[in-house]
Amino acid sequence: xxxxxxxxxxxxxxxxxxxxxxxxxxxxxxxxxxxxxxxxxxxxxxxxxxxxxxxxxxxxxxxxxxxxxxxxxxxxxxxxxxxxxxxxxxxxxxxxxxxxxxxxxxxxxxxxxxxxxxxxxxxxxxxxxxxxxxxxxxxxxxxxxxxxxxxxxxxxxxxxxxxxxxxxxxxxxxxxxxxxxxxxxxxxxxxxxxxxxxxxxxxxxxxxxxxxxxxxxxxxxxxxxxxxxxxxxxxxxxxxxx
Length: 242
Fold this sequence. Notes:
By secondary structure, the chain is of the alpha/beta class. Helix content is about 40%, strand content about 15%. It is built from seven helices and six strands. It has a six-stranded parallel beta sheet with strand order 1-6-5-2-3-4, sandwiched between helices. Helix 5 runs parallel beside helix 6.
């Protein structure tokens, strides 16, 4: 039942996004989980294909402690395999994920990432204090952007799973280790400035249902998400998409 309901939601989302992308407007999706990349990505693919008159595949960057690239056989099409699902149906050309935690990603999923030529970097392989034997966070971001260099027929997108933020404990899968809010904000800023993504997904930003939306951590979460959206728009809104 959960899987069927999720698929229905993704179809509705895809239809809405298709209309937005067809008009060359930038879709921004704030969702409960990364599975919404299915509807968002498919809708962008359809809308841009119609607008351009030629197939428009996707290149996706993801800041996340989970790869969400499981084999489709491991789990139904509702969680943990949104990006691999887009790859399987042939519309995801390039995928890169930054901030993975080694102990929260299955070996089988990592093998799947490698076998489909996806780029990834573990959080443990990034130096946040300037250690000389590991690339810095900024160097890792540039490597990610280079791996996603989009062709003319590709549509770039950015996904930020808020569980990669270590001090944001309201999310559905809070990370015990990750990036700070300021680091995530700057990652979005620099990625958007260089990559010019056409669409944005903010996932896993779940308010605490036990307190009002305008109080406590919920108020912080809403302002944080609004800041990321504003950062995204400010750094890419001047670039036309025909």
